[in-house]
Design a protein that fits this description.
By secondary structure, this protein is mainly α. The chain contains five helices and no strands. The two termini are 27 Å apart.
Length: 71
């Protein structure tokens, strides 16, 4: 598969699994807090941005623009 068609989310999912980024930031397996805690509300927004970035970033993009990785 060409590197412009390999997304970061695929690489992460292959080696570690994307579930790490989908769960509770505090590590609670089955959160029963209702209403949801304040940390959940903050994490939900950040989590969405992280997952979106992983799913739209290709390996080609990282090679062409190393500033994406190096800040």
């Amino acid at each position: 598969k060409p590197i412009d068609q390999i997304y970061l989310s695929e690489v992460i999912d292959h080696f570690e699994g994307m579930e790490t980024f989908r769960g509770c930031v505090l590590g609670v397996a089955d959160c029963k807090v209702s209403p949801r805690c304040n940390m959940h509300l903050l994490w939900e927004e950040t989590q969405g941005k992280i997952l979106e970035t992983f799913s739209r970033t290709t390996l080609q993009m990282l090679l062409v623009n190393p500033d994406l990785v190096n800040g």
